[in-house]
Amino acid sequence: MTAGETAASFFKYASISIAVVVGLYATLLGLLTTSTVQSHVVYLHAIQMTWFKDLNVPETFGFLKNQVTPFSIKTSDGERLYAWHILPAELYRRHEQPLVAEPVGFVSDITSRLAFQLLRDNPEARLIIHMHGAAGTVGSGYRVPNYRALSAGQPGKIHVLTFDYRGFGRSTGTPSESGLILDGLAVVEWAMNVAGIPPSRILIFGQSMGTAVSIAVSKQLALQSPPVVFAGTVLVAPFVDTARLASTYRVAGTIPILSPLARFPLLFNYLQCFIWDKWLSKDNVAQYIRANEANDEKYRLTIIHAEDDYDIPWHHTPILFWHAVNASVPAGISYNDLELRKLESKVDLGAAGSVMEWRTDNGVIREEILKTGLHDVIMGYPVITMAVMRSFAAVDPAFTC
Ligand SMILES: *[C@@H]1O[C@H](CO)[C@@H](O)[C@H](O)[C@H]1NC(C)=O
């Protein structure tokens, strides 16, 4: 073969390969516009990650015997959500003997259990409602160290309630935006009416996709009459909305799916019409703040993100923070003006990152940007413990005693 022929065949194969890649990508995009495929991509609920472990044996996830009570919660539209009630370590220690003596496994009537009674009957008990991210179950990944960090500040008092959304793990149904919001509301309803915990002793924690559910639920309850406002809402690694997430998301932190298209705004805007579940957290957070300001309700919103989060870039957090702050100012504030205010009042913590706190007469909106923590390792960090303690102590200073 001459050099010319080699070059010609090289170009032939190169162009065929490019055509194949472009064709596959277009097919992928086409599939992504269907609601079933999209819900699998957004929620990743088919990826359980705990296939070889039984959620009804929480001890295999590193818990003490009967520290966790597996049970289920019914939603208003008839789904059954699989849930774990997790006792904090010190409270467990005080009641170790009778807890160990109880039967193990899934419980159909949780009210019969000592662990539940310790939550319901103690006026000092606090409850964190945990809304996890996409994929997996209550037992997967960094969620277990997350539960420990949540209760670490007061391990005699802080219970955690975590659950799998519809279509995840052992829960019935298939996921959707409206469905997941119903799930969050059902769990709140259980906490307030079955466990009898007033909202001032409840905190909502969400990570990643769970932040969108947390804000949507918090907003809905703040807008109802009479409003329900919790001791705090803590969001870790949130996103502004699905469209902006799609333009920045990388699978496993490396493979961009839609971000190459973000360079073609017309095409990208067109594709946005096919996003079924929009999760407009930026609007929900603004409505949540506006409702609380209008109703004179005390509120506390903490948003935490790590700079090395490769799944959801940390830039989502300053935007969400701005939408929240803007809603607390009657005349509004521009993004750039808020950034200027940060230059004056942001606290630089060196290698630990930075904190910006915005206070109004009614509430506190706090942005914490960590230098490290990735997307999910951060959930086990002491900043999570601190965010919980700050929220509960603001409602009742005696809580830390
Ligand atoms: C900021 O707040 C002002 C005043 O409430 C409002 O008119 C404006 O739409 C808000 N900006 C955004 C981006 O939400």
Automatic annotation (TrEMBL):
Organism: Coleophoma crateriformis
Keyword annotations of the record: Membrane, Transmembrane, Transmembrane helix
Domain AB hydrolase-1, chain residue ranges per copy: 129-280
Protein name as it appears in the record: AB hydrolase-1 domain-containing protein
Transmembrane segments: 12-32
Transmembrane helix in keyword set: yes
Superkingdom field: Eukaryota
InterPro entries: AB_hydrolase_1 (IPR000073), AB_hydrolase_fold (IPR029058)
